[in-house]
């Protein structure tokens, strides 16, 4: 029966409308709060002169995208290095609109914080619909504070940040039993970075456990095919070196099975892999292991633990961001299976407490501790003043920590031994910026060993008093003398 115009709707219908139209205020607030927290901490980190070389490299890439160009970087190569030939991450172009609004490198950590806030909202909203608002908010807060999330948020900008909403939507669809939709959300992951292949393999394992054999096969074949296409054809066609240069960081570059087993043993024998498992699972109190969704973390973890590079084995940096998303959603799945409301609330509260403790132990705690320590009195101001000596538009060879503070207004080239870029080509900058070295040692040893034929003049410095009688550079700016017409012998330079 149709309702007459102006007639009040039945109570049940009005309630249904309200349920559909009422905005998820609490979930939005949690997502916005997460964005606000990590934006504030990221800006504080940037102001404290703690940004690294990755932010400068991505800053050059996003600036190029914002002007409609390919992501060329002079930090990698003096003549320009197409970053799509380093890691295949075209998704970074999505940060260009933010750069249009604020053409400064510090806007990029805000983009990353926004992606983390969005992911927090997505997780909280779906879990709230399934398990109630209290549980949804607790799971969302646990994700926002679990180790892997601040580990990413407080490490410049990383392309993996763009994977977070995609991984969240994929596993939230799995949580709802919508397997086809989950697969569709996973497909764009290969535009984030080539190693997203392992996330696709993880999804294939989950689908295989659900006996969705066709979908599992599609996920695995799509991931493997995309990976082969990217590292076998696309990157070699674009790369300066004509090949994929990261095989040496994987078991595939070291003899495969035998080397993979050896490195896996080293990862666990060193204690890094066990510590990582504890850090990932402790906030969930181990309950995430009750969910088959945790199968999705196996390929990404194994790909790291079988690498000869110990950097990938443990809790550091941004490598645990996507795994943290899966752990949070797996926890929600496990709680739904338990169906014990009072116990669930207590367990979540305990898990959130653990997440807070771990987060403020590291990495948030480490950042806050460093912010309380002054590097050299008015150090940040001093460094800014010293770097301000360099005119806009100059060619600058800069150390990693200083690069992000020059990249907006200068052509920045990475500082390497023998004054060559990362490809081995000689560099002849207008200015040289070095950092963190003893005053005496910098002038008598560094220039002598790296470029004995180059004259130089100290233009400005920001110093700190490390202990009585010992001064260290935080930043020093040099003007080189005339560069030799014949480049030095580069036979020992990195190629």
Question: Would you write up a description of this structure?
Answer:
- With 495 residues, the chain is an alpha/beta fold.
- It folds into two domains: 24-369, no CATH class; 379-480, D-Maltodextrin-Binding Protein, domain 2 (3-Layer(aba) Sandwich), CATH 3.40.190.
- 53% of the residues lie in helices and 8% in strands.
- The strands form two sheets. A five-stranded mixed beta sheet has the order 4-3-5-7-6.
- A hairpin with a 2-residue loop joins strand 6 and strand 7.
- The longest helix is centred in the middle third of the chain and has 26 residues, at 213-238.
Give the key terms.
20 helices; D-Maltodextrin-Binding Protein, domain 2; globular; disordered N terminus; 8% strand; alpha/beta; disordered C terminus; 53% helix; 2 domains; 495 residues; five-stranded mixed sheet
Summed up:
The protein folds into two domains: 24-369, no CATH class; 379-480, D-Maltodextrin-Binding Protein, domain 2, CATH 3.40.190. The protein contains 20 helices and seven strands.
Quantity of strands, as a count: 7
Helix content: 40-55%
Strand fraction? 5-15%
Total domains: 2
Would you tell me the overall average pLDDT? Answer: 82
Tell me the number of helical segments per DSSP (H or I, 4 or more residues long): 20
Order of helices and strands: HHHEEHHHHHHHHHHHHHHHEHEEHEE
Q: Indicate the radius of gyration in whole angstroms.
A: 25 Å
Structural class per helix/strand content?
alpha/beta
State the strand order across the main sheet: 4-3-5-7-6
Sequence stretches where pLDDT stays below 50 over 5 or more residues:
1-21, 467-471, 485-495
Report the biggest beta sheet as strand number plus sense, adding barrel if it closes.
5 strands, mixed
How does the overall form come out from the CA principal axes?
globular
Distance between the termini: 78 Å
């Amino acid at each position: 029966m149709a309702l007459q115009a102006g007639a009040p709707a039945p109570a049940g219908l009005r309630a249904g409308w309200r349920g559909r139209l009422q905005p998820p205020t609490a979930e939005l607030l949690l997502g916005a709060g997460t964005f606000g927290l990590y934006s504030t901490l990221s800006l504080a980190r940037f102001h404290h002169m703690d940004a690294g070389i990755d932010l400068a490299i991505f800053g050059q890439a996003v600036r190029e995208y914002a002007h409609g160009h390919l992501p060329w970087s002079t930090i990698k190569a003096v003549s320009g290095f197409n970053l799509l030939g380093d890691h295949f991450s075209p998704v970074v172009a999505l940060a260009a609109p933010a750069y249009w609004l604020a053409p400064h490198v510090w806007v990029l950590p805000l983009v990353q914080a926004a992606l983390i806030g969005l992911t927090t909202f997505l997780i909280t909203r779906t879990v709230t619909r399934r398990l109630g608002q209290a549980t949804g908010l607790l799971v969302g807060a646990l994700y926002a504070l679990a180790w892997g999330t601040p580990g990413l948020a407080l490490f410049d900008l990383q392309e993996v940040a763009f994977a977070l909403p995609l991984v969240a939507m994929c596993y939230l669809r799995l949580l709802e039993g919508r397997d086809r939709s989950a697969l569709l959300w996973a497909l764009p992951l290969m535009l984030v970075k080539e190693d997203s292949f392992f996330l696709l393999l993880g999804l294939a394992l989950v689908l295989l456990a659900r006996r969705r054999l066709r979908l599992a096969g599609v996920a695995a074949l799509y991931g493997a095919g995309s990976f082969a296409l990217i590292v076998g054809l696309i990157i070699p066609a674009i790369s300066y070196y004509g090949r994929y240069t990261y095989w040496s960081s994987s078991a595939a570059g070291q003899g495969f099975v035998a080397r993979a087993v050896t490195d896996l043993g080293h990862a666990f024998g060193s204690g890094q892999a066990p510590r990582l498992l504890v850090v990932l699972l402790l906030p969930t109190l181990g309950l995430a292991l009750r969910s088959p969704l945790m199968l999705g973390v196996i390929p990404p973890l194994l790909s790291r633990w079988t690498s000869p590079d110990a950097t990938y084995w443990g809790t550091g940096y941004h490598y645990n961001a996507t795994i943290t998303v899966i752990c949070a959603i797996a926890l929600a799945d496990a709680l739904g299976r338990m169906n014990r409301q009072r116990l669930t609330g207590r367990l979540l509260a305990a898990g959130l407490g653990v997440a807070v403790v771990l987060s403020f132990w590291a990495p948030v705690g480490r950042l806050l501790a460093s912010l309380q320590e002054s590097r050299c009195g008015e150090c940040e101001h001093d460094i800014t003043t010293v770097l301000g000596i360099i005119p806009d538009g100059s060619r600058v060879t800069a150390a990693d920590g200083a690069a992000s503070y020059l990249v907006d207004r200068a052509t920045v080239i990475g500082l390497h031994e023998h004054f060559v870029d990362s490809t081995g080509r000689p560099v002849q900058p207008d200015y040289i910026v070095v950092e963190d070295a003893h005053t005496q040692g910098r002038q008598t040893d560094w220039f002598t060993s790296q470029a004995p034929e180059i004259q130089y003049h100290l233009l400005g410095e920001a110093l700190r008093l490390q202990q009585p009688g010992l001064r260290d550079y935080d930043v020093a700016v040099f003007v080189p003398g005339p560069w030799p017409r014949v480049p030095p012998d580069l036979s020992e330079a990195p190629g």
